[in-house]
Design goal:
Serine Threonine Protein Phosphatase 5, Tetratricopeptide repeat; 9-stranded antiparallel sheet; about 600 residues
Length: about 600
Amino acid sequence: MRTGLLAVLCITLVGVSGSPSVVMAQEGQYRSKVLLTPNEGDWAKDAGLSIEELEQQLGSMEDIYAKSSAGRHLARHYVERKEYDKAIEFYRQALAAEGLSDVANREMLRELAQVYLLKKDYTAAAQALQQLLAIDLVPEVADFLLLARAQHHLGNYVGVVATLDGIQKAGLAMDDSQLQQALALYYHAGAYAQCEVLLARLLESQPDDAQNWHLLASVYLQQNKKKQALDQLTLARDKLVPFSEKDILLLASLHGANNNPYGAAEVLENALSAGEVPQDATTYRRLFEFWLQAREQEKAGKALQQAAKLSGDIELYLYLAQLQMEQEDYEAMYQTMLGACAKELPDKYVGRANLLLGVSQLKLGDEVGARRSFINASLVGGVNAQAGQWLRFMNGAPATDDETRRIVGICYGANDKRLEASASPAQTRVESPADETPQENAASGFEVKTVSPMSLFYLQSTKPLAELMGSLKGTVINMYVSLAKSGGSADGPLQIILLGDPREAGVEVQLGAPFRGSTNGSGRFRVRTTEPFKCASQTYEGPAEGMAEALAQLAESVKAAQHQFTGETRLVLPQGDGADTLKVELQVGIR
């Protein structure tokens, strides 16, 4: 919006500084002054003197009044004929004779300044106007504006501001047209505080002028007053002031800049629904970013899905698949990867695409397809280590020589071979062992799942779990502060990881937060990337003192279901839990 408003101001400024239409108007002004001054040349007319004769006699005139009057008459004549150099010469002679009153001299200086402006001699115009304002008469607003205009063309912005400030010091009132001219000059001089005052007056007299509403917001932004700019545009929106596409995007961005990404997303989503902004990939990507910042994962996913479909941008598809993996929506993740890999991929995306495809296939039970996707990913630099971890986790058979020779899969590059994909990996799903059927797990009160690898910012402790829970709040606050200071940001619920049997003394405890960003740890806090974690999961909701018993009962249920323990237990604490009641996901690692 600021660029558009700047263009408007430029037009306004040019409008007072020499556009063809204004030049014609000024020339017309000169003609009207000559014609509407009844006594300025009557003596010459009555004497029957021609212009040529008047010029010849001017030098010999001794009467100062006659000499000044004749010079003024000749000057105006040559203005009429657009012979500006001669006009300037006779204006100077008329002024030098000092035969007219201060009022008449001021009028001549004003006309002389306008002729200089027509000739683009801004230095001479400024000098004439300064001489005019020095006359001991009540000044006029138009003279200050003309002087400021000349100084603007000279690049003397300090002089522009000082001249315009003189209008207020002289106690002069400006009409709306003059306010607009002063506003344009102040704006270009960078005097934004003065612009605020003038715009407030214009809004009082012209409350329905949308340009002034948006221009005031621009003035606030020029001074980095983001909160005032947001308030201004919000009020304008409430008053149904017309908004352009750029204005709406600016309003949304200002919500985000003022730490209100939810408000930013609402503004943009409402504008999309109303057809006020284009329903294109750029808009939906911006909407996704706002919803993601607001931690509205589901809404962020929907916006990102639209952005990916509209743009075909592989990077967006991969980001969407990553988001769906974090939400454990593996069917949607699989469909996203099919969309991403519908065409040949640029080589730099082939590895990541196969890795994400493999995760979705594995989670949906297609171990054969997942194994091949992970093998494909292991053949490409960048994600080969992660692909190897997933292959080890699923106990996949080692890759054959043929499989390592080239990539053959759903996600393929320029030198790879494409495989056709099924609409759902369920067609090739491998049956689970009898002791891990969903029915038996449900009967035992837990479910078996695999938690994806995550980056963890953590504190290691040997305190008993009960003691750690007692001081949890203060420790967590310190951890999140350290994470933020070291350049990271939280990216998931709090994790308490127990390494060893929770029922025995001396168990190692890690209190950690999943994070995104770049950090190397800070002080007593460390950083690591976890392995895929297969576990028996159960949600506990109740008083804090009952959690240990619930964990013990889960361990017994897992043992009764003939699962083997890995020795790792996790307690996942969603954000927003109250002080008296806990809602915790209990995760017992199994093989």
